[in-house]
Specification:
The complex is a heterodimer.
Chain A: H1 3-24, H2 38-45, H3 62-70, H4 72-92, H5 109-131, H6 140-158, H7 160-165, H8 170-198, E1 220-221, E2 224-225, H9 229-252, H10 256-260
Antiparallel strand pairs in A: 1-2
Chain B: H1 3-28, H2 32-53, H3 74-84, H4 88-119, H5 124-130
Helix pairs in contact in B: 1-2, 2-4
The chains are: A mainly alpha, B mainly alpha.
């Protein structure tokens, strides 16, 4: 072992022990804490609070309420970072053409049959996670990650060429991804546009009525808690995340020789 | 020592071990693939830490996930919810961090594959020799 490597290991051990010592002195507070912070109490009490109609979000799930309502603008920019990473990945593969005249390479009929069943079951689970995001743990991000699994399965079992021949091409997935992002943007400014039309005050990322902005997305529809803008955000994020990950994972499965043609 | 404190201590120690492994992978391993694996371990450790800090063990009863479950009597259920539910804010931050982390990891993986295609190696020492 070289001297430099020993130096690195010793430095890491000293660093970790210092952090552990700070934690044992109470650097992170008493673990596990008995109470949550005041901010968390405010979030919890206003996730769904019919007694404070101008201070409440519109779902039973606090995490979704924070992600898309209390800190909606944060999530919007986080989604933008996500898109940046996806766009950068696509840029690396710019100019790569997939030759669809070659025979698609797939797996055995057993794997294909199981995958055909999964193509119905997995998106159903993903959709339930997205549509129930404001009621139970879940939401657009998680549902999108689940739905991506089925795209990966199809690409692995039937082959990328087969998928492209069936019509799931890069421009179509890009369009779907853009529609998701546009949907998120429109939901964010939906009440502002409505406010301009009917002549009342409203804010971006507003979900329920506020003391000086008296319009809101519908919270209940026929005794069903629909969650106002939370449901729309989850739905569009579901589409956007599925399309984004599907595109990147499809790029991953392009054959090496086809990529090599582009690299000079 | 109480049971929750023992469990929290074990989790903290294992997270610090994970942190050490991740830092070693990033600083000392020459392979870019292993550096990427170490970065994912580091981000997962940081996420687990955030969730642990937001966890709680209330004085009475057991901790509850941040989902309002009893919807019959809102007055009572919201009071109970605030007293027993864990902090939802770290969970919300970790949720988006995981998805963005995955997208960024995929991008870094793309870059490493491209790097391999151009240089024929993912060993940073050999690349240093190539640049001379």
């Amino acid at each position: 072992m070289k001297k430099s490597e020993i130096c690195v290991i010793v430095s890491i051990i000293i660093f970790i022990f210092s952090l552990a010592y700070i934690t044992s002195l109470g650097g992170l507070g008493y673990l596990p804490p008995v109470d949550v912070r005041k901010l968390a109490q405010i979030y919890l009490s206003s996730t769904y609070n019919p007694f404070e109609p101008t201070n409440t979000s519109s779902g039973y799930e606090s995490v979704t309420a924070i992600v898309w309502d209390f800190r909606g603008l944060d999530t919007f920019f986080e989604t933008a970072v996500f898109y940046g990473a996806i766009i950068a990945s696509i840029a690396v593969y710019r100019g790569v053409e997939i030759d669809t005249r070659k025979k698609p390479i797939g797996m055995s009929p057993i794997a294909k049959t199981v995958t055909r069943l999964s193509t119905v079951l997995i998106p159903t689970v993903a959709a339930s996670i997205a549509f129930h995001g404001h009621l139970t743990p879940g939401g657009g991000f998680q549902a999108g990650s689940v739905a991506t699994v089925v795209i990966v399965l199809i690409v692995m079992v039937f082959g990328l060429r087969k998928v492209i021949l069936k019509g799931l091409t890069k421009p179509k997935i890009l369009l779907l991804r853009s529609l998701g992002l546009i949907g998120i943007g429109l939901t964010a400014i939906g009440l502002v546009l409505a406010g301009l039309v009917i002549g009342v005050n409203a804010y971006i990322f507003q979900n329920q009525a506020k003391p000086i902005a008296r319009i809101s997305y519908p919270m209940w529809v026929d005794d069903i808690l629909v969650g106002g803008s939370l449901l729309l955000f989850n739905l569009f994020e579901f589409i956007a995340v599925t399309a984004g990950f599907a595109l990147v994972l499809m790029l991953f499965s392009i054959e090496e020789e086809e990529v090599r043609k582009v690299i000079k | 020592m109480e049971f929750p404190v023992i469990v929290a201590s074990v989790i903290v120690v294992s997270l610090y071990v994970n942190l050490g492994i991740a830092l070693y992978g990033i600083f000392a391993r020459p392979s870019l693939v292993k550096k990427l694996l170490a970065i994912t371990i580091l981000s997962d450790t940081a996420n687990a830490f955030a969730v642990l800090v937001g966890y709680r063990w209330p004085r009475t009863g057991t901790p509850q996930p941040p989902v309002l479950m009893n919807t019959t009597d809102y007055n009572e259920s919201i009071k109970y919810y605030v007293e027993h539910a864990v902090d939802p804010l770290p969970q919300a931050l970790v949720l988006t961090a995981i998805v963005i982390g995955l997208a960024v990891t995929l991008f870094i993986a793309f870059i490493i594959i491209q790097y391999y295609r151009l240089h024929g190696t993912v060993d940073v020492r050999k690349t240093k020799a190539l640049s001379r």
